[in-house]
């Protein structure tokens, strides 16, 4: 990412970098975020350059605090940008609705990154609905260049309307790359003092102003350069796209050789919709195909516009010829275009797609997501399962969002009964834990990570304490926001800009609520299993902090111990263990040597944690310097 | 069905499991905690030793008896009986800790000293001073260590897991094992090598010492009574359990009897070289107190007992005058038959047939109501 002021010069950039550059060209004073894929890198980059470029960047405790801190900056006429993923936007929902009612001063842009196909999410929610609900303008770029261009535009628009603006991006924008022609870096604008009678208050008598702002946005969008028309003028077959839909459509049309037969209206201003622009094109068309990521958002609102203006037209999209779920890709879009245009299949299907001859006969084993080699979560869930089975009652394990969400799969001994959203583990467990006072007879265990703890777990914990729920709450403290790439959180003692800050102690915080706290090491398999067994039997709310740094972090700081299998001690399939290390423990570092028919260690993958040596029933796994 | 699932469904989840430990010690999957056997992770073997060694999986126990013992010695209610004696350890130090006369402790000590066995798998109390809390299996090779394991805990620690581990290690070639009837049945199941692929070196079992057993108690239940060095259940007319100086009404104890013990047909540990219990002669408790009755079942057992007599390790007491020995034998037979009848009744109530005893149903047909 370049911080140079080189207007007109073109750089190859990732979409996330383009957001950063856009923020610089928009002259932001303040940036905030809570990490979430696919836009996790944005604030990391902003944090690195904030000092140099004269603005503030912060990793916030959660998305709500992130957005509200932007509103604070905006009050002093500062420009701000808040970056979240789709779930983060939902966390902000109340703030957005109330904030929109009150309006803003300095430009405020929320960038929400959606993850169609949920590559690194638990869902593929569509952020766009939030704009309708909160009555705020919505933009979506179709390319990396537009991503960069849209941020300063959105900041200008936001300031002009005195309203926050939502920019929706998707994984392919965030992680895709493209050429970006730079714009000018502005002079930093000074803050404006907040006057005695200045107000930013969200209250219902402002409802009409809210709607007026939206109408002013619509007028601007009717002539916006982010809406394009390509292909045949006055086309009878019209394709309307939102965001990345445009690129897929233009490529597929070229592949099919029909780019001159259809018209493509690609929209970058998605709410409020430019009705005049749309009706002009609908008037000439006989049928429309809408291509967009995830929900039939545009499709249904275009249908509403057609109805409102009495335009009799066929409308297709996610509700029929494009699958209702999942990400767009060239195969999906090409197939939909063929169906839309009535083109028969002539040539062989696209490579790798359904029915592709090359793809048949490829035996690629299905692989589940798993914890990294040496991950402390593997040990934590291994221990938890054993402790619960000891009780003769498998208990109820209520989970949360983080790397440990994979515990629902083999990686964590299928250890999850429940998982919903950030903070859900403790809060739902509170409900069950209360019922243990009224006849519900199973041990209730909830889990969260250290970053999640600060994010939303604290209120749930207080609720559990106040209502006397019987829960063992386990904090899987790996000293990192590991899943999204080691962003600082309140427990790490560092800020986004690299400043040291006082670490907030999870233990002290829990104790201040009145929860008894235990700390243990998940790598002490036997002792910690016993501790969990004992804690499950105690009444009331208990907190256990399982401390062991993320293996990826540990690999950077600890000397790697050599681990190997003593082939004389490992009896292979003649041992009763049924490949305990590689099959049950399941660390990617534990592999099977099919030639020698015994266990082996993948030296490249192994990080030397040595836990497998503790659980090998034949004591065949050796650790350099002996077990700890 | 996977071996582990079959065993879990047929024995553990149906409350038939005695926690003897025969399924454990060979793999990491079967474990025991506080008297309860459980699976911690799933093994994916279709056939495993666990289900073949389990004393509560269906097996022809009558055929097994005939395979290992002289058919001429077999008494229907008691298994093979070569001799019946009243004995006690000559060493008062052994007797001080023993439930009754310390016969088993004295015999195992002697067996180790004289090379009848080269190691012994016993049950030992946990960390506390007494004998009742947290008992566990232990492997002993030093004769002097044997007496530390004397006395009864009235619980069923997974001793056979310790035996399995010792057999797997293949270091000791003549291992003696002391256990309740469920455990000694498991030992003979192992020796019958029911699983072709791997017998876990069952030939290394040297001798089996059986303990008479009425039932075992739940782990948690014993916690309520606290730790005690000496525990005994008095003859039925007293209706009492003594823990050191504390006397507990049997009605307070019976609710803690393990559910699985209701399905046990064997009072005298029929599968053993020698079996030992509390003396219950016709002369009454005042005379019997501090004495054992000892059944010799095999030649090897007889040799050890005779050596014990020669060396003065055991003291022998005559049965009294007349047909007192026959009366004691009848008393024992009646008690053993009563346990068989209760087990058959419990099993038929539960399954409609004899459950795990179904393969030997002819041997139990007289007990079916």
Please provide the count of β strands of chain B.
15
Termini distance of chain A?
Answer: 44 Å
Percent range of helical residues of chain A: 25-40%
Radius of gyration of chain B: 19 Å
By DSSP (H or I, 4+ residues per run), the number of helices of chain B equals 14
How much of the sequence of chain A is in beta strands?
A: 15-25%
Fourth-tier CATH superfamily name of the largest domain in chain A: Thiamin diphosphate (ThDP)-binding fold, Pyr/PP domains
Give me the side-by-side strand order of the main sheet of chain A: 3-2-4-5-7-6-12
Mean pLDDT of chain B: 92
* Alpha-carbon distance between the two ends of chain B: 34 Å
**CATH fold assignment of the largest domain in chain A:** Rossmann fold
Number of strands of chain A: 23
* Overall geometry of chain B: globular
Q: Which chain pair has the greatest contact? A: A-B, 17 and 20 residues
* Number of separate structural domains of chain B: 1
How is this structure best described in words?
The complex is a heterodimer of chains A (628) and B (369). Chain A has 21 helices and 23 strands. The radius of gyration of chain A is 27 Å and the shape is globular. Chain A has 4 domains: 202 residues, Thiamin diphosphate (ThDP)-binding fold, Pyr/PP domains (Rossmann fold, 3-Layer(aba) Sandwich); 114 residues, Rossmann fold, CATH 3.40.50.920; 180 residues, Thiamin diphosphate (ThDP)-binding fold, Pyr/PP domains (Rossmann fold, 3-Layer(aba) Sandwich); 65 residues, 2-Layer Sandwich (Alpha-Beta Plaits), CATH 3.30.70.20. A 7-stranded mixed sheet of chain A has the order 3-2-4-5-7-6-12, sandwiched between helices. In chain A, helix 15 links the parallel strand 15 and strand 16. The mean pLDDT of chain A is 94. With 628 residues, chain A is of the alpha/beta class. Chain B has one domain. Chain B contains 14 helices and 15 strands. An 8-stranded mixed sheet of chain B has the order 7-6-8-9-13-14-5-15, with helices on both faces. Chain B has a 3-stranded antiparallel sheet with strand order 10-11-12. Chain B has a two-stranded antiparallel sheet with strand order 1-2. In chain B, strand 1 and strand 2 form a beta hairpin. The chains are: A alpha/beta (628), B alpha+beta (369). Chains A and B meet through helix 14 and helix 20 of A and strand 2 of B.
């Amino acid at each position: 990412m370049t911080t140079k002021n080189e207007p007109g010069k073109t750089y190859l950039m990732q979409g996330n970098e383009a957001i950063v550059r856009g923020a610089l060209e928009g002259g932001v004073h303040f940036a905030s975020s809570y990490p979430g894929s696919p836009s996790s890198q944005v604030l990391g980059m902003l944090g690195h350059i904030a000092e140099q470029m004269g603005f503030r960047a912060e990793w916030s405790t959660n998305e709500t605090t992130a957005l509200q801190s932007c509103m604070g900056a905006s009050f002093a006429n500062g420009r701000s940008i808040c970056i979240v993923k789709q779930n983060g936007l939902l966390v902000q929902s109340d703030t957005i609705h109330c904030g929109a009612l009150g309006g803003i001063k300095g430009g405020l842009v929320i960038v929400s990154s959606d993850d169609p196909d949920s590559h690194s999410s638990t869902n593929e929610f569509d952020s766009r609905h939030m704009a309708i609900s909160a009555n705020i303008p919505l933009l979506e770029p179709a390319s990396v260049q537009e991503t960069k261009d849209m941020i300063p535009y959105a900041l200008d628009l936001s300031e002009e309307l005195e309203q926050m603006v939502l920019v929706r991006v998707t994984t392919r924008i965030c992680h895709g790359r493209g050429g970006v022609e730079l714009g000018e870096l502005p002079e930093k604008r000074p803050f404006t003092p907040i006057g005695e009678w200045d107000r930013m208050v969200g209250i219902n008598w402002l409802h009409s102003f809210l709607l007026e702002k939206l109408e002013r946005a619509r007028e601007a969008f009717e002539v916006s350069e982010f809406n394009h028309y390509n292909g045949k003028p006055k086309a009878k077959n019209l394709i309307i796209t939102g965001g990345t839909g445009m690129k897929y459509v233009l490529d597929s049309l070229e592949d099919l050789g029909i780019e001159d037969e259809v018209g493509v209206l690609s929209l970058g201003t998605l709410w409020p919709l430019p009705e005049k622009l749309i009706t002009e094109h609908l008037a000439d068309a006989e049928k429309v195909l809408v291509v967009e990521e995830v929900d039939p958002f545009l499709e249904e609102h275009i249908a509403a516009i057609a109805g409102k203006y009495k335009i009799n037209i066929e409308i297709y999209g996610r509700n029929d010829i494009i699958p209702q779920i999942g990400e767009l890709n060239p195969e999906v879009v090409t197939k939909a275009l063929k169906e839309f245009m009535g083109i028969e299949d002539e040539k062989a299907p696209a490579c790798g797609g359904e029915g592709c001859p090359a793809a048949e006969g490829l035996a690629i084993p299905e692989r589940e997501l798993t914890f990294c080699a040496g991950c402390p979560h593997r040990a934590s869930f291994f221990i938890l399962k054993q402790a619960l089975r000891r009780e003769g009652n498998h208990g109820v394990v209520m989970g949360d969002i983080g790397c440990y969400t994979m515990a629902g799969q083999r990686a964590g001994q299928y250890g999850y009964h429940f998982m919903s959203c950030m903070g859900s583990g403790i809060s739902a467990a509170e409900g069950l834990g209360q019922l243990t006072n009224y006849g519900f007879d199973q041990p209730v265990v909830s889990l969260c990570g250290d970053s999640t703890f600060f994010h939303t777990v604290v209120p749930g914990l207080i609720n559990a304490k106040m209502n006397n729920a019987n829960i063992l709450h386990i904090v899987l403290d790996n000293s990192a926001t590991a899943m999204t790439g080691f962003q600082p959180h309140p427990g790490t003692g560092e800020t986004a800009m690299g400043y040291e800050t006082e670490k907030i102690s999870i233990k002290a915080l829990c104790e201040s609520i009145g929860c008894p706290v235990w700390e243990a090491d998940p790598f002490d398999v036997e002792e910690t299993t016993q501790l969990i067994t004992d804690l499950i039997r105690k009444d009331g709310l208990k907190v256990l902090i399982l401390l062991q740094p993320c293996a990826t972090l540990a690999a950077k700081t600890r000397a790697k111990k050599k681990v190997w299998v003593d082939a004389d001690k490992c009896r292979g399939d003649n041992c009763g263990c049924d490949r305990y290390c590689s099959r049950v423990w399941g660390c990617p570092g534990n592999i099977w040597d099919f030639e020698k028919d015994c266990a082996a260690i993948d030296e490249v993958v192994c990080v030397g944690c040595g836990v497998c040596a503790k659980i090998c029933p034949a004591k065949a796994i050796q650790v350099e310097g002996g077990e700890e | 069905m996977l071996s582990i699932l079959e065993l879990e469904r047929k024995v553990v989840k149906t409350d038939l499991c005695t926690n003897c430990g025969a399924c454990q010690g060979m793999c990491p999957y079967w474990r025991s905690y506080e008297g309860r056997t459980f699976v911690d992770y799933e093994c994916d073997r279709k056939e495993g030793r666990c289900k073949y060694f389990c004393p509560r999986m269906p097996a022809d126990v009558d055929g097994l008896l005939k395979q290992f013992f002289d058919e001429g010695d077999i008494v229907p209610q008691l298994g093979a009986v070569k001799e019946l004696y009243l004995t006690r350890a000559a060493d008062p130090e052994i007797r001080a800790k023993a439930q009754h006369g310390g016969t088993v402790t004295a015999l195992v000590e002697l067996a180790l000293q004289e090379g009848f066995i080269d190691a012994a798998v016993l049950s030992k109390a946990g960390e506390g001073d007494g004998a009742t809390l947290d008992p566990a299996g232990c492997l002993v090779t030093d004769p002097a260590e044997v007496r530390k394991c004397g006395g009864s805990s009235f619980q069923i620690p997974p001793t056979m897991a310790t035996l399995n581990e010792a057999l797997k290690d293949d270091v000791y070639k003549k291992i003696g094992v002391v256990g309740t009837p469920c455990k000694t049945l498991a030992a003979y199941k192992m020796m019958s090598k029911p699983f072709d692929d791997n017998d876990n070196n069952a030939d290394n079992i040297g001798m089996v010492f059986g303990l008479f057993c009425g039932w075992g108690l739940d782990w948690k239940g014993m916690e309520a009574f606290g730790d005690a060095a000496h525990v005994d259940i008095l003859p039925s007319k007293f209706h009492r359990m003594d823990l050191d100086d504390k006397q507990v009404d049997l009605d307070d104890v019976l609710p803690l009897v393990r559910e699985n013990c209701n399905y046990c047909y064997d009072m005298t540990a029929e599968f053993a070289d020698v079996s030992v219990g509390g003396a219950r002669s016709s002369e009454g408790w005042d005379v019997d107190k501090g004495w054992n009755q000892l059944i010799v079942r095999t030649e090897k057992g007889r040799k050890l007992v005779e050596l014990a007599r020669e060396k003065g390790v055991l003291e022998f007491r005559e049965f009294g005058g007349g047909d007192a020995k026959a009366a004691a034998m009848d008393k024992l037979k009646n008690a053993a038959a009563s346990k068989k009848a209760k087990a058959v009744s419990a099993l038929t109530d539960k399954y409609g047939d004899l459950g795990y005893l179904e393969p030997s149903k002819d041997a139990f047909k007289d007990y079916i109501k």
